[in-house]
Amino acid sequence: MLNGRTAAVILFIGCFVVGAGFAQSQPATPGATVSPGPNPGQAPPVNTGVGDARQTLAENWNDFLHYTRIGRFDLAQGYGQAILQNKPDPAELFKLVQANQQGYEMAMKVAETARDEELAKVTGQLLALVDQGRFVQRTEPKIIVDEIRRLTSTPRGKMTAVRRLKDAGEYAVPFLLDAMAQAIQDPSTETKLSDMIEALPQIGRPAIRPLAAALQTDNARLKAEIIRALGAIGYPQSLPYLKYVAEKAQVPDLRDLALASMQKIDAQSAGTPAAALFYTLAERYYYHDESLAPTPGVPFGNLWFWDSQANRLQRVEVDQACFHELMSMRCCEWSLRAEEQFGPSIGLWLAAFFKGESTGVPMPEYFGPNHAKALVYATTAGPEYLHQALARAVNDRNAAVALGAVEALATTAGEKSLMYTLGPSQPLLQALRFPDRAVRYSAAIAIANAGPRQQFTESRTVVQNLAEALAKNGQQAPAQAGQPWTPELAEAYALRSAQAMLAVASSRNPVIDLSLAQPALIGATKDPRPEIRVLAGQVLAHLNSPDAQRAIVAMAMDAATDTNVRAAAFGSLVISAKLNGNLLPDVVVSDVYKLISSAQTDPAVRAAAAAAYGALNLPSQKVKDLILDQAKG
Fold first, then answer.
1. DSSP letters along 484-539, please?
2. Which end of the chain, N or C, is surrounded by fewer C-beta atoms within 10 Å?
C-alpha cells in the first residue's frame, strides 16, 4: 500500500506527463505561459545535440523551453545549439522571453538544477544573449525619447512612461536633461517641463552619477532641478556634489537649494566640507561598496562627464573590473577641486590608481595617450602621500598597492622620508613583514639603498629579507597575493638585493649588519649568473670573517669559472685583505702562489692574483721565492 507522499509524487508526475502531452498536441498560442512543444507534424531532431537550424528563432526557442521543461535535455540542448548557431538578434530573443515569461522562468529553473553539463553550458550562453537583449531594449535611445514624449499624455501613458524610464535607469538621464533644457528655452515644446521634473527623481539611485556630473551645467534653471532631484532621490552619495555647489555656486539661490537638498538626505552632513565628503565617498568606491556598484548584467560600468561644448552629458564605458577604482580617483579629484590642500585625497588617489592598474585591464580612453602610469604620479607625489597609500595597503593586505608605493619610495626617498611616521606606525617598516614577498623585498631594498645611519629595531629584518631575496636563485615558488612569483622575478630581486647589499657594505653602514646575510652571500658565489657571483664577492670583501674571505678565494681559484669573474674575485680579495688582513690558511695561500707562478695561468687572472697576493701582506720569503723562480740562470 502506498503512503501519502508516494501517492502525491505519482499523481504529480502523471499530471506533468499528461500536461506535456497535451501541450505537444496544441498549436502555438501567442503569449502563452506554457511552451507548446515542436510544431505539429514535424519530427523532433535526432539525439545529436544539433537541433534544427532551419526553424525560425521563435520555433527553436519554443522547442528549447518545451524539452527542457519535460526533462528531454538531449533534445533541449540541440534546439539551444541551433539558436546559438543562427546568431540571433539578442533583442528579438528578449522579446520571446517577454512573451512567455512564465515558461522561460520554469525552463531556466529546470536547466539550473539538471545534472547535464552540456545543457548548462548552452543555457548559460542563451541567458547571456537574453541579458544583452534586455540591455539593448531598455537603453535604446529612440525608445527612451518616445517614453519622454509620452510623459505628457494620458495618466496611464504617463505611468507607463515613468516605469520604462525607470527601467532605463542612468541611460534615460541625458535624454531627459536634453528635453528639459529645450523646454526651459522653449516652454511651448510638446513635453511639459513639469512632467519631466516629476519623472526625473523617480528614476532613483541609478540616476545619481549622471545627475552629479550634470551639475556642471551653466543652465541655472536646469541645475536647480537637478539639485532638487538629487535631494528627492535621497541617497548619501549625492551629498559631496551638493555641498560642492553650496560652497562654490555663484548664485545664492542655488547654494540655498543645495543645502536644502542635503537636509533631506542627511542634515548633519551640511556642516562637513565638500572635500571631506568626497574623500569619504572615494573610500566607499575604493572598498567596492555594494550600493555604488554599476548596472548589473553587462561587463562594463559608466563614467559620466559633462561636455561643456555640447552642453550635455557624455558617457564613457569602462571595464567593471576597475570601475570602482576609477570612480574613487574621480571623487579624489573633486575633493582636491573643493580644497587643494586636502592631502588624504592624494594618498587615496595614488592607492586607487595602483589598485586599478593591478586589474590588468586597459585604462579608459579618456586618460589619453600621454596619460602617465601610476608609478610616475607616485614618484612625483612625495613621501607623505606615498606613505598614506602604503599604510592603507599594509592594513588591507593589498600587495599591488603596497608594491607600487614601496617602489616609488625606493626611487625618490631618503632615510628621513623612508622612516616617516604616520600616526603610531611606520608604514615602510611594517612592509618588511608583509605577506607578499615582493613587497617585503622591495621594502628592504628601499631601506638599504637609502643608507640609514640611525638605529632602528627592524634592521635585522631588512637583512633577513635581502638575504632571502638573494638566496632564491630564480627558483619557482607559489604565487603570492600580488603578482605571480616567477623565476624571472626571483632573479630580478636577487640582483637588486645584491646591489643593495653592496651599497650598504661600500658605505660601511653602521646600522645594517650584513654578517647576518653571510650564508646567502657565500651561496651566491656559486650562482650561475656572473653578475651575482661578482656582486656577492664584493659584498663578502667587507665582512671581517675567515669564511667570507675563503669563499672569495674559492671562487677566484675555480678553473671552471669565467675568467672575468675570477679576476673580479681576486679584486674582491684585494679589498678584503686591505680591510681585514689575511684570514686565509697557509695551504690556500700556497695555492694562490702556485697560480701566480704558473706560466699556464691566464694573464688577466695572474695579474689579479698577484695584486691580491700582495694585498695579503705576506712575509717577504714568499715574494723572494717568486722573484727567484722567474730569474734566468
1. ---HHHHHHHHHHHHHHHHHHHHTT-SS--GGGGHHHHHHHTT-SSHHHHHHHHHH
2. C
Asked if residue 523 has pLDDT above 90, the reply is yes
Asked if residue 473 has pLDDT above 50, the reply is no
Q: What's the start-to-end Cα distance of the chain, in Å? A: 125
Contacts of 39 (CB under 8 A, 6+ apart): 28, 55, 59
Assigned C-alpha cell, 68: 527542457
Contact yes or no for 470/500 (Cβ under 8 A): no
Tell me, what DSSP letter sits at residue 422? Answer: B
The highest-confidence range among 16-25, 49-58, 100-109, 400-409, by mean pLDDT, is 400-409
- Contacts of residue 123, defined as CB under 8 A and 6 or more positions apart, other chains included, come to 68, 80, 108, 111, 112
Domain segments of the chain as ranges: 15-139, 141-272+298-321, 546-633
Question: For 404-421, how does the pLDDT look when each residue is reduced to its tens digit (9 = 90+)?
Answer: 999 999 887 666 667 666
426 within 8 A of 400, measured Cβ to Cβ: no
Per-residue pLDDT band at 52 (split at 50, 70, 90): low
Phi, psi of 525 (to 5 degrees): -70, -10
Distance of CA 561 to the CA centre of its chain: 45
Distance, in Å, from the CA atom of 538 to the CA atom of 534, rounded to the nearest integer, reads 6
Which H or E run contains 25?
A: helix 4-25
Find, among 31, 164, 36, 163, the residue nearest to 102 by Cα.
Answer: 31
Average pLDDT, the chain: 86
Residue with cell 505537444: 24
**Is CATH 2.60.120 the classification given to domain 141-272+298-321?**
no
Q: Return the CA Rg of the chain.
A: 37
- Are the C-beta atoms of residues 130 and 136 closer than 8 Å to each other? no
